[in-house]
Amino acid sequence: MRFPGFAALIVAGVICLAGAPIIWEAQTQAAEAEPAAAKIDSAVCLGCHGNEGFAVPGADGKPRQLHVAKEKFEKSVHGKRLCVECHKDITEIPHQKIGQHKVSCVQCHEELWATAQKENKTREFARLGVVVQQIDKYMKSIHARPNIEDQSRTNATCYNCHDAHYIYPKGSAGRAEWRLTIPNVCGKCHSKERDAYMTSVHGDEVMWKRNPAAAVCSDCHTTHDIENPEIASTRLVITKNCGNCHAENLKTYTGTYHGQVNTLGYAYTAKCFDCHGSHAIQRVADPKSTVHPDSRLKTCQQCHKDATAGFITFNPHGNTHDFGRYPAMWVASKFMIALLAGVFLFFWTHSALWFYREYKDRKEGKSRPHVLTEDLPGAQGTYYRRFRPLWRIAHLAFALSVMMLVLTGMAVFYAETSWAKIIMNAFGSPHAAGIVHRISAAIMLGIFFAHMVYLAFHLGPRWRTFNWIGPNSLVPWWQDLEDAIAMFRWFFGKGPRPVFDRWTYWEKFDYWAVFWGMAIIGGSGMMLAFPSVTASVLPGWAFNVATIIHGEEAFLAAVFLFTVHFFNNHLRPDKYPPPDIVMFTGAVSLEEFRREHTLEYNRLVESGQLAKYLVDAPSRPMTLGSRILGLTLIAFGLTLLILVLIGFTGSV
Length: 652
Description:
Strand content: under 5%
Radius of gyration: 38 Å
Distance between the termini: 89 Å
Largest sheet: 3 strands, antiparallel
Structural class: mainly alpha
Mean pLDDT: 88
Number of helices: 29
Number of domains: 3
Low-confidence stretches: 1-36, 369-380
Helix content: 55-70%
């Protein structure tokens, strides 16, 4: 005759007898120390829960596993704590069936934090503070919000993701092993995403090759502060997280317009996962990859609907230091660096020496900034008309458009700076700033082309008879080189200060620099503004080259204008007090004209033509308004210069 319950009774008796000495010892200790009566030793709990296969019937009638592996638990971060510190409703052994009162991870850690603060346990601050911060992040995350289908519960709580008995410290073998289980843990709720992940290069490394360094869900989506991936801020975080493993690729990505907009805090341009995919991401060489050469155009067309075959050879991760892989980018970068170095070396030296010589001569009483007009007999209040109204209006519109281009363009070029984000917020978005940038570019290019049309009509009919190297021509000639040499001799006290004709050599440089700038900045800007047209006739790497020369030439133009040009025309000592307002009033005092353009003045006097250029002095309101406008533009330009230099120093 068999007794089905007899074996179970024997096993239960053995377990109880085995645990009896432990229970008795714990109860004896509790009797001896009243304050510790409720603190049941974990060894008592493990007397039952430490037995492999230990389980009780669940609410659904199925066995509920309650086994805790003693060795694994003791290696966890909770291993030194008593079970009842978390399971607070257990006050006696044997205990009644529990389940109504669940463990509160949040309450537990907040109480520990409060105790550490109260008792000034400084060693506990760092460790417990991290957990409290994680709890704060969790409470704001999508996991802590009520579930859409069942408002009585949250989307996920601590123990849905963590096994409280087996949480291991960073750097431990247990932590590395646990990390490999994260995709399956997340997959309990996100099964479709898990299935896609299993087919990816990341999933292959984690699930099959057991590589703990490969990316798992929390590496991309973050951990405790996880948020809805449809939100722009979340998409930006995910993009940044890609750089935790792919640092060089993230760096090169942020050098593109896509990445610059992303850095500014806007998520509407392409990000890593828009091109490479997300959960099912593959290696670039894999035919299933969305960035495989056979699939790349289709991927580009997700955003650029009219993208052409030229898009395929665009290098989104190209750099300027790898000549072997990106020769065109390397050459373009080195050329622009050499150009910047040459221009700034010459003209900054020129300005510094000029300032020094003016200072020395004035200190020695050899010169003064302006000789009063009254020193010229019969010329009191007489002015020379240097610029007609149309040229002055064009100059003002050109200056304003260039300054707006610098503001909107450099804010993108130095997107990582705090001031760039402020500028973009003021405009509303990079998209809005881009519209302003294009309008400003249209104004600048429009003025330039209008000037070209004027030259065609003005000089075209007499191009054979016009003296192209004469004093009225802006074409550089040997005399300009001789003037520059004479100027440097004066700088070093080796000769007298030279006199000039209608155009000085630095004014000619300013003039022709605009032609260069329109070709380089304007041409590259048009290429970038109309990518589909560009890609229909040029390879994709042309975008990489255009981006380099557009940004570097813009930097050159901005810094040159707000240092060298400002110094030559407004800030040098003999122009004191600034600004020079001739480009606003159109007229300059006869004394200043004679001093600045001596040869032209002498020629006009000798030919008897000076009188037809003489005009009345600008009115007081005109003079005052011009000074205010000039000072405003100088202040704005110098502010832009400071912002650009902040961006430059932060990027080198």
